[in-house]
Amino acid sequence: MVEIFPEIKYDIVVVGGGAAGMAAAIFASKSGASVAVVEKNSCLGKKLCITGKGRCNITNNCDRDDFFSNIPENPRFMYSPYSSFSNLDLIDFIESLGVKTVVERGGRVFPASGNAKEVRDALRNELKRLGVKVYYGCTAFDILIENGNAAGVKLSENGMVLHSKAVILATGGLSYPGTGSTGDGYRFAKNLGHRVTELVPALVGIDTKETFVGELAGLTLKNCGIRFYEKTADGTAGKKIYEDFGEILFTHTGISGPTVLSGSFFLNSQEKRNIGISIDLKPALERDVLDARILRDFGEFSKRQLGNALSKLLPQSLIPVFIKLTGISPAKPVSEISKKERGIIVSLLKNFELTFKSLRPVEEAIVTKGGVSVKDIDPKTMASKITGGLFFAGELIDVTGYTGGFNLTIAFSTGCLAGKSAAALAEK
Predict the structure, then answer these.
(1) Is there a single domain that holds both residue 285 and residue 406?
(2) Are 213 and 165 part of one and the same domain?
(3) Same-domain check for residues 213 and 139
(4) For 55, 223, 253, 382, which has the most beta carbons within 10 A of its beta carbon?
(5) HEC readout, 314-367
(6) One domain, residues 323 and 412
């Protein structure tokens, strides 16, 4: 027996209940539209709850120029969404929902509670207050098209159709598929004739060819310089790819941390270039100053062996690996260390070298680089240039920022503009 469903109508159906989807639904509803959200999980904002290591790096309170300097992929596309709903607007909006915020190093904005779920719950409560209907545990199967326009969403669970005057796709990318980001939106977009650029991991850890990194797994180095560069045929440093300063984390297979995540944006897993990674462990000290510092330490520890004389220079867990790389015996008394050997130590402190092997899988990436081509989306409305009544928001679009709150800002800004634009269309 074929099940017959009553015709269910909304002004707008939003596919995806992450940051972008919730923002779209909230601002569409505030604009007077009746709104439904289709969310495949049993709760909203699943990925939002794990951002910022569970603390939710909501945004960054930098100025406009700094904001756009942190959007390496299609920054011009963000001019209109940012003007409609900026990072500062986002802070005001979150605080208007009862979430107090704090600004930390690098302008990063977090909820004062340090709990990402507080942000998610505030957004969910606002949706409830506005009367937005959420279809939990439902997967969108297809977009209903009538006369060339998006006219609703078909649900795969039971074949139900939610009819609407507009549809907003905010399904996320491919990263963290356990949160529901499994690429559904790319399929919908392609089926409707939109271009989807190459999908690769962005803001992700790096695997290195050197296996000794496994001995350092869990070690965090702060205030280090890092540089990615192309190696020349003779193995020396060539063209610079990326350079940064900050925190580096060693993993079992390579390195991660904020500086590495940002640098990964300029690499891909199929690199045919021979890429070197240079870490400056003491960026504040020039070589001659560093050499004098080592001489002082060796004078203080004159009766010690090298393996026990570097504690003022390096974290304890790094010392055995570091000494092994110098080729100097850890049992050698520091009083017997030659000027040449001291030069080797200085060189390694200023140039701790690794070799790029590959990026970690896209499933581990903070965001997906690539997506629905910005050439197929009107940046002033987030509307499709191909399908009437269809709008896009969030990570699904080919716009990516560095770590530091910029990608969530993109999600909220595009979601806000998509919601308002879809509501304006529904009024006509």
Answers:
(1) no
(2) no
(3) no
(4) 382
(5) CCHHHHHHHHHHHCCCCCCEHHHCCHHHHHHHHHHHHCEEEEEEEECCHHHCCE
(6) no
